Structures are given as C-alpha cells and as structure tokens.
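Example record

Each entry pairs one chain with its bound ligand, NAP.
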Amino acid sequence: MAIQSKNPATLEIIQTYEEISDNELEIKLKKAQEAYLKWKNTSFEERAKLFLKLADYLKTNKSEMAKLATMEMGKTLSAGESEIEKSALTCEYYAENSVNFLNSEKVTTNASESYIRYDSFGVLLAVMPWNFPFWQVYRFAAPALMAGNTAILKHASNVPACAEMIEKSFTDCGFPEGVFQNIFLGSTRVEKVIRDPRIVAVALTGSEKAGASVASIAGSEIKKCVLELGGSDPFIVFADADIDLSAEIALASRMSANAGQACNGAKRFIVHNDVFESFSKKLIELFSKIIVGDPSKINTTMGPLATEQIMLDVKKQTEKSIDMGAKILYKGNIPEMKGHFYPPIILSNVKKGMPVYDEEVFGPVVPIITFSNDEEALEIANDTIYGLGATIMTSDIDKAKVFAKKINAGNIFINAQVKSDPRVPFGGIKRSGYGRELGNYGIKEFVNIKTVWVK
Ligand code: NAP
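Structure tokens for the complex follow.
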C-alpha cells in the first residue's frame, strides 16, 4: 500500500511519501537502541519536564495538528482539536504520576528485605491506526517513554503527515535524538522490524487481522505485545432509563466524533420493547440534525469515511442486513462531493445472523435490537466475539452494577458514553485484544517487573 496523504472528502492526493529503505531503517533502529541506553538512566523529573513541554506544545499547535487529521482521515476540525487536547492532558498525567506508579514496592516476606522494581524494557515498536491519529500515538508514547523506553512508530499508511507531525513534536520539545522516531513503512515490512533483536515488545492498535499477524510474529520471537483491537459494544437501554439522555449518549457514542469509526463506539443498541418507540423517535430527531459534509467546514458535524474500502465495507454490511429483514428507520443525506461519504442510518428489526449484529461496522449505522427481559438483554449484550466496552442506561444503578459484573468487556459505563481517560485503564477481552493502556496498569505493560530479594 502506498504511503499517501489523500483527502477522503475531496479525493485529492496531497503528498506521497517514500517508504524507508533497509539502510535508513537500520540507522533508525541503531539510534533507538543507543538513545535507550542513555534515556533509561534519566530521572523521572527530566522526562516529566519534557512531557510537560510537549503538553504545552500540543495545546499551542492544536489547530494546525487538527487540520492534518481532517485533511488525511476526514474528522471534523473540532473533533481533531479535542483529540489533541486529550493527548496533552495524558502527557501531563504521566509527567505527574509516573514516579508514583513506578516507585519500588516493599513486600513482606521471610527475606531481610524484598521489593519489586519497575525497570524499563527497551526499544518498543508501536503499530498505530488512523482513526485517532494523534491520540492513539500519544496515549501509547507518554507512559512508554516516561517508563524509560524508547519507541519507533509505524503509523497507518493513510496518515503520514500526522505521523511526521508527531515525530516533529518530540524533536521540537527537545527529546533526545532517537527517543521517539517515525518510520514510513508498509505493513508487509512490519515483520522484519518485530524480529529485529533491538525491538523488545510491540503495541498494536488496529484490526483483528493485523493484531493476529503481529501477535503471532511477536509470539514466535517470545516478545510481549499489547493489542487494542476492534469492538461491537452493546448499548443497553432499559425501560426505566432517561430516554432523552439515552438518545443523546447513543448519538455521541455511535458517531464518536468520527463518523462511527471508533473502536469503542456503541455498535449494537439493545432497547427494551416498552421504550423502543420513544427512544427511536428521539434518536431520529437527533440524527436528522447531523450535517454531513466537508469536515474542514465549521458547521459540518460528520465528515466522510476515511477510505473507499471502509465505505464499501459499511455499505455491504448494511445492505446485506436490509436484504435479511432489517428496516430503515432513518437515512440521512450525503453531499454531492466526490469523497467517501456514507449517510447516517438507523435500522430496526435487527436480528442475529445479520452483519450489523454479528460484525464490527465501522461507520454511521445504528442497529436497534429489542428485548423484553433482563436475561435477554444480557444474552444479546454478550453475544459477540468482541469485548471492548458496554454502556448501560437505567435509573436502577444497583441493577446496572450487576450487569457491569456480568457483561464480558473491559470497560463498562453506566449512564455514560464509553470513553478512554488517562486516569483509568482501557482495553478489551476476547477478540478486542489483550493488555491495557492508560492509568496505572497501562504504564506497567512495558516495564520489567523485577523482584529483588535480600537474604
Ligand atoms: P488496521 O488495518 O489493522 O491498521 C492498523 C495498523 O496496523 C496500521 O498501521 C496498519 O498499517 C497496520 N497493519 C495492518 N495490517 C498489518 C499486518 N498484517 N501486519 C502488521 N501491521 C499491519 O486497522 P485500521 O483500519 O487502521 O483501524 C481500524 C481498526 O482498529 C478497527 O477494528 C478498530 O476498532 C480498531 N481500533 C481499536 C482501538 C482500541 O483502542 N481498541 C482504537 C482504535 C482503533 P497500514 O496502514 O500500512 O496497513
């Protein structure tokens, strides 16, 4: 796949980038390793100072950076700016908290002294997706680098300008050479990098297919990996839920500022029969206000899908589900532009076996499935190969907490949209991946948890 900046709203090719040569790759790996040997010995204070500078840099440059995301993957400018603000917060969070997270811990044993150290790992490879082209990278990099590791980024091939900008942000803030480097690399050459002895572990955020491939290569080299993969999050609306609020959160959760292209977006709406009418009515009202168009225009609320392939996949999944009996409750309009636009659609009468029930749909489609009792709701919620997140809308918080225990997913949000937050761990189970990012747990994924025992 060519490494190309192509505007998904206009189909204009902005720039094509050369893939890194084997010689250049060798130079970058060598630099990353040399930088690691020095960086691991720097203090938390020194690293924190640089991350606080980076946080300021992100805040100062947020509009310029947001424009790159809009241009390359089609999110609205305001969505891009929020993404950069959240990245800045995460840099600050790890600058302030890493020293406490990674402090040595005393353990009482029959030794005269025993404790656990958290030491750095080495050079990490980050394979990242395009849908949150800044946030995904900084949320990996802030804890990984604060822990004393260095990193090489292989970003998605459709966001090279964002990747270049991320590397520049580290350089401009004075991070030592080699601590964070971007490489323009097609996915077929990722294997070579994983197998390089200087790479000690891999973080991948992306599809199941990419995750399975990277994990099997890393596994054959006995190298750790953290996988943040897809999801088909349930969004349960109980009969006692606040319906207006449920519809508002459903809209935000499905569109997730990204035309439905978010791993943690709600993707199956499981609604009690008694409130199906009122919930769908309110949701249609909200959906009819969505303005699909050029994401660089200020009044646009939904841009195009990022690539033609995604648009074709969403279209196929939706049309097949309609052929199988799903009913269109609402279908929005798309602009007369060349880009990869797909209308927001709400479907009812959705059943198991339809692609919109069984698969991850990466676009603005809302499948509604109805239920009549709690057991049925739980069964539908867990009837997925994924396990990333779930939202429960109800006024009965005790019941919601019982559901939180019984739903098989990594992140359960009650009366709220599933969101990542630097203060709490984020990640999935089943085919949504393994390992955690963010919070205290995220920073411990890429450290050597070392036992020291003094007789
Ligand atoms: P993708 O096609 O898997 O790409 C993700 C990254 O993996 C890109 O850098 C891609 O490079 C690389 N890649 C693809 N195939 C690979 C292979 N066989 N070996 C090594 N690297 C490979 O996924 P995407 O379409 O960009 O992102 C959408 C998916 O990511 C969705 O399933 C979404 O749910 C998931 N996601 C999950 C999270 C989370 O936190 N759980 C967050 C965001 C997205 P190229 O671009 O060069 O192919």
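The longest helix spans residues 77-101.
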